[in-house]
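Supplementary Note 3. Input sequence used for the single-chain structure prediction.
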Amino acid sequence: MKMLLNPARYRLESSPVPDQQQEEDEILGEVSIPDPELLIKHPLHNRWALWYFKNDKTKDWHANLKVVTAFDTVEDFWALYNHVLPASKIAPGCDYSLFKDGIQPMWEDERNKRGGRWLINLNKRQRNMELDSFWLETLLCLIGEAFEEQSDDVCGAVVNIRNKGDKLSIWTHDATRNEATMRVGRTLKDRLNIPRDITIGFQAHSDTMTKAGSTAKNRFVV
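The predicted structure, written as discrete structure tokens, is reproduced below.
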């Protein structure tokens, strides 16, 4: 998704005027006026909230999860993205989550509990080479409605920073919508330029809740 800003400027040039206005016109000369697009923020289709999970062992899980802020324009997204730490720089055990406003990044949320996630596992080397670009492209897929007809099926995305390897996932709200789920996975894989010989899997939250994430069976792969 590209910034919807036009760098051009409109310029108002003086034109021939009666003699009594000539002196004033010479003083004013050319008058530059801002491009109206620079004064107008460009709305997104949805309002989104960025969440941060801090791995504080002295608090319970819910107390560690905080909303950073919510936004609904292109400009406010970039202001936020450029202000927070890159995903690769947050501490191990911490997460970023970007979800549609009103949906909490947890399995128990009404919009999540029947859904699942497309999961990408990244090794430590990829943290320095690909994690940040993958995360940004995933965010742009979300706010830019890149999943098209399936965008309503998408709840948000999570990046987990872990010592053993990081995880990036797209969450959907209904794991039984097979074709919609597959289209989301294909779009994500294409946008991240993941090679065809590397597969990513989709896990239902109901399966992940009963097993460790690494052992939960993939319902779909692309």
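The mean pLDDT is 86. Strands lie at 10-12, 31-33, 43-53, 65-73, 95-100, 116-122, 154-160, 166-172, 201-204, 220-221.
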